[in-house]
Amino acid sequence: MIFVTLGSQKFQFNRLLEAIDQFIAEGKITETVFAQTGYSDYIPQNYEYKQFLNRDEFSEMQSKADLVITHGGTGAIVGALKKEKKVIAVPRLAKFGEHVDDHQFQIIGQFKDLNLICACDKCSSLPEAIDYAKKHTFNIYKSNTNIIIESIESFINK
Question: How many domains are contained in the chain?
Answer without folding.
Answer: 1
